[in-house]
Design goal:
Helices cover 20% and strands 36% of the residues. It is an alpha/beta fold and 234 residues long. The chain has a six-stranded antiparallel sheet, covered by helices on one side. A six-stranded parallel sheet has the order 10-9-8-7-11-12. Helix 6 links the parallel strand 11 and strand 12. Helix 5 packs parallel to helix 6.
Length: 234
């Protein structure tokens, strides 16, 4: 059951021009499964000065401390601007954990993680978790899409992970690049042979439009609903 926690900021650092990593400890501490999220209370940001709540996926493994959030700064977004303003030592309140978007793939199958932007956060939590590490899939593929090269989150970390096939895509490159030019959906259509469609399970995280289009592609290759796990970001 989710419980109310008081969180203390350890660090708040920009990692791309539009994304920052917020690290914190909490009192009391809370246990969560990789892929779950915390609902953060945004004080006084609602109608008539009421509090709002905003959900953020946890990017760190359940076994590590502090907890990390990977947050995109959205113009006029009450949640992201509130979190962006916090400094080390500041406190905020939340309720955690929430969500059923967790890692369940058996070891004989391939796990395909498809995300855009900060949708990569729960996937990072998953592959760093004890559940994943103790029972890794036969093959692990990360297909990650951004508009510009400077928005490639965790690129150095994941490209150096020998157990992960890291496939970044850039839809609007600002310079010459060796990376795939296009969206994650373009990559799937252009490279239908790179994956065992029926021998894989799929984890999708990002915008609803992206998830809808990916599911249409998967369905066209015979992938069943049971093999698809999703978390929509709004």
């Amino acid at each position: 059951m989710p419980a109310k926690v008081t969180c203390k900021v350890i660090s708040n650092v920009h990692v791309t021009p539009t994304v920052f990593i917020l690290s914190f400890t909490s009192e009391p501490g809370f246990e969560f499964k990789a892929g779950q999220f915390i609902s953060i209370i945004i004080p006084g940001a609602g109608p008539n000065g009421r509090d709002l709540r905003r959900a953020y996926s946890i990017a760190s493994a359940p076994e590590t401390n502090p907890v990390e959030l990977c947050v995109k700064l959205v113009e006029n977004g009450p949640g992201t601007n509130y979190l962006h303003s916090l400094k080390p030592g500041d406190e905020f309140n939340g309720l955690a954990p929430y969500g059923n978007f967790t890692y369940v793939t058996p070891s004989e199958k391939t796990a395909v993680f498809i995300s855009t932007g900060t949708g990569i956060a729960p996937f990072r939590s998953m592959i760093r978790s004890g559940v994943y590490q103790s029972n890794p899939p036969q093959r692990s593929i990360f297909l990650f899409g951004v508009r510009h090269e400077e928005e490639l989150l965790y690129h150095d970390e994941l490209s150096a992970n020998e157990h992960v096939e890291w496939i970044p895509t850039v839809s609007r490159p600002t310079k010459e690049t060796s990376l795939f030019k296009g969206r994650v959906t373009d990559y799937l259509r252009a490279n239908p042979e790179f994956i065992d469609w029926m021998g894989s399970e799929y984890y999708l995280c990002g915008s609803g439009d992206m998830i809808k289009e990916i599911k249409e592609i998967l369905s066209s290759h015979g992938v069943t609903k049971e093999a698809i796990h999703q978390e929509k970001y709004y």
